[in-house]
Design brief:
The chain is mainly β. The protein has a single domain (5-208), classed as Acetoacetate decarboxylase-like (Beta Barrel). Helix content is 9%, strand content 51%. It is built from two helices and 16 strands. Strands 1, 2, 3, 4, 5, 6, 7, 8, 9, 10, 13, 14, 15 and 16 form a 14-stranded mixed β-sheet that branches. Strands 11-12 form a two-stranded antiparallel sheet. Strand 14 and strand 15 form a beta hairpin. It is globular.
Amino acid sequence: MPDRWRIRGVEWTNCNCAVGCPCQFNSPTTYGHCEAVQAGLVEEGHFGDVRLDGICFVWLLQWPGEIAEGNGTGQLILDARASDAQRDAMRRIVAGEETTPGATHFYVFSSTLSRVLDPLVAPIDLHIDVAARRARLSVPGLVEGEGTPIPNPFGDGEHHVVIELPDGFEYTRTEVGRGTSHVSAGIRLELAGSHAHANPLHMNQDGVIR
């Protein structure tokens, strides 16, 4: 059966947890609540007959407690370079539509949101180097974010950490770093030197493609 949709690219996430993010290990959040900015670049993809090559997106997320407790708020920023059809396709993917229940992080996170703000359309400048654990995100007037490696606290160089989740619903392997983000959209976030990770993004309606 052909894919209803498929995307392949890269993704960067910056949340408010301490570096390492206990959520990745099914443990409670560092501060008892979660807020995050997630940005992705679809290098190649489609939703039905709509091509998604080169399209970026930014997803803003905020929960008053643990993610599993729900009552979260989300807002999507769609790429101004995209057509109306491409924007609608990305909105539907992130909303978990036409997705096997629980198969992707888009579906899971969306299922915990009680408030979804209207999407914004804006120019998105996004650069992600997964191996280098570096990222740069700019949505003028709305989001500024930067991802950097973890510095080695005992000398020069970088502290290299990898998380592997063979059965993960977002990735199977991600490079861990630090992130700093300023968000002034419908959701406002101030993240400074907190957890960040960068990973390949390769999935379809049935989950991560391994």
